[in-house]
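Thread: "does anyone have the structure for this chain?"

Original post by V.I.:
We have the sequence but no experimental structure in hand. Need at least a predicted one for the grant figures.
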Amino acid sequence: MYRRCLIKVSGEALAGQRGFGIDPVKTGWIAGEISKASKKGAQIGIVIGGGNILRGVNAASVGVDPLIGDHMGMIATILNGMALRSALVKAGVDARLLCAFQVGAMVEVFDQEKAQSYLEEGRVVIFAGGTGNPCFTTDSAAALRAVQIRAEVMIKATQVDGVYDKDPKIFNDAIRFESITPSEVLERRLKVIDAASIEILRRDEIPVLVINLHVEGNIEKALSGFRIGTTIA
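Reply from O.Q.:
Generated one for you, tokens below.
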């Protein structure tokens, strides 16, 4: 069983069937899945994306400079973090929301020692604001936070059940890997996680478990050591 983990949750996951914005039912369901794992003793950090509200790469569509778009995307992750924290509290979990930059009284500024202390106290810690810098993905932020909280594993909770040799939503003959090395991910140019994240995690020998977020019990199973999804190590 993994004692401490970092879970990367996409912003799109919070949108549910809506496809955009925040679906309270789906957000509550995700919080319930995290709650189950937390109540079994897992120390959980979460990095949340903002793609359900705005992606930095889509900044041109709203007529702003790409760097400004990245900052807008980081702010979107704060909104998602606040929604997820509220849902976790409703699920009976003590949760804290930390941001990479100063926001206001409702959100704490990220501090490595504070984050580790919260985890040791049994709180779920949500990390928003990405890395605090433009040009970095939330995958990179997740890898960075995984290293900073000394996570034993990073779970990438996605829309599919692992890493495939090609997009399974497009190709019926796509093959899923049970395990794959970081080097193979880079060599095959698989888009499951970006190259910067791979390098950050590889340096500290933190494995990545890629699982389907939308299957009940998957987070709990992954942290308990069940073989599900794909292991990148």
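V.I.: this helps a lot. The domain at 4-232 is CATH 3.40.1160.10 (Carbamate kinase).
O.Q.: and The mean pLDDT is 94.
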